[in-house]
Design brief:
By secondary structure, the protein is α/β, with parallel strands linked by helices. The protein has one domain: STAS domain (Transcription Regulator spoIIAA, 2-Layer Sandwich). It has 3 helices and 6 strands. Strands 1, 2, 3, 4, 5 and 6 form a 6-stranded mixed beta sheet that branches. Strand 3 (19-28), helix 1 (33-46) and strand 4 (49-53) form a beta-alpha-beta unit. Helix 1 packs parallel to helix 2 (62-77). It is globular. The relative contact order is 0.17.
């Protein structure tokens, strides 16, 4: 499993065939955006599907949530998919309030 360290968030991922399973942990804020964007771009370009588990994410700000939405839209434009699984209730609420409920995927096991 590879890790992309940052001051406040960590994105670890492992490849399973055509899928990437990633875990975003810690507190993801605008300072993490460049690292997250680069990692997401690389994962989406390399595989058909990316699932990002947020169960160990304690905080996400609006710019990072927007980055996830933008990455998902760009993935879809290239015939790929980015989904989010297992966010904590407060993070789920933010994502829903931002109109991102379509990214949530409850079918992925943790």
């Amino acid at each position: 499993m590879r890790s992309e360290p940052s001051a406040s968030a960590t994105l670890r991922h492992v490849v399973h065939g055509e899928q990437v399973v990633a875990h975003l942990q810690g507190q993801a804020d605008v300072g993490d955006a460049p690292m997250l964007r680069a990692a997401l771009d690389q994962m989406i370009a390399a595989r058909k599907g990316v699932i990002i588990y947020l169960d160990d994410l304690d905080f996400i700000d609006v710019p990072v949530a927007g980055l996830l939405l933008q990455a998902s839209q760009e993935a879809r434009e290239h015939g790929r998919e980015l989904r989010i699984a297992n966010p904590k209730p407060i993070i789920r609420r933010l994502l829903i309030l931002l109109g991102m409920s379509g990214l949530l995927d409850e079918s992925w096991p943790s």
